Amino acid sequence: AAKLTGANRSREHCTELDATAEHHAELAAALRRGLDRGEFRLLYQPIVELPAGTIVGVEALVRWHPSDGPVVSPVEFIPVAEHSGLIIDLGAWIINQACADAAGWQDRHGDAGPRVNINVSARQLLDPDLPGLVADALSRHGLAPERITIEITETAVFAGGVALSTVRELRELGVGIALDDFGTGHSSLTLLRTCPVTTLKVDKSFIDDLNGTAEQEAIATSLSTIAATLGLRAVAEGVETREQADRLVELGYRYAQGYYFARPAPAADIDAALTAPALVA
Ligand code: C2E
Ligand code: MG
Ligand code: MG
Ligand code: MG
């Protein structure tokens, strides 16, 4: 077979790019329609206090239920929503819905109602309207700011500038700020000096091998010590086994989240769990 000429090669390369771009454009359009048709839902995954397993918070996790197919994971559509800019409108819907659900729990359970964590992406943090949007949602639903925590990632704030000043404005509203997937970025410790963080969510990768190596345990212990020293909460992410949960208690962790305690579930299931005994006997 003849070798590809330079021209052929670049044409082939273009076709691939076009196919990806076309796919993204189609998915972006479908997401837009999905938002207009109300096809997004929030699930909530409990954040528990150790060792009892009492639910103290929940993390809102978005799902897309297209009318013509199976549920789509945020891992697939959030990057497309970010790239197309739809994340601004989708994010506004998520913030409003999460605040509505948080207000319901506040009404029905008072202080025992869970605080609600809301993920925001890098693109949302670059939007100077974000703090105003959050403030509006809080007042629309009569919600105290302390009942909400905004989850951000290190990479989203690392660049500084608008994102960092947006985080500061959010914190000034009185909402909590959690650093998600903590320890996986390149700026973790530097960021703690400049960013008004209230919670560290210690990444699942540090929790996975807890009963494996001494190194792994040393890192997990150090992260909880850093949090305690700075007056921050540390939440262990992705706890899947009883052994991990037990070890976390020994290492000084007070908060955890993961399939071992509960999977993400609809808001009504959280109400049921709140009135049931603690998750861990
Ligand atoms: P994240 O914010 O770090 O959320 C935690 C993810 O880990 C969730 O996946 C959750 O279901 C999963 N998880 C929790 N416990 C366990 C466990 O024990 N084992 C394992 N293997 N996984 C566990 P999910 O819901 O698929 O969300 C994936 C990512 O998508 C989130 O990571 C977050 O970055 C993004 N995302 C989800 N919802 C939203 C949202 O409303 N807005 C934005 N901007 N991003 C979101
Ligand atoms: Mg998160
Ligand atoms: Mg996380
Ligand atoms: Mg994560």
From TrEMBL:
Coiled-coil region: none
Position of the signal peptide: none
Domain named EAL: residues: 24-278
Protein name per its UniProtKB record: Diguanylate cyclase (GGDEF)-like protein
Residues shown, of full length: 462 to 742 of 742
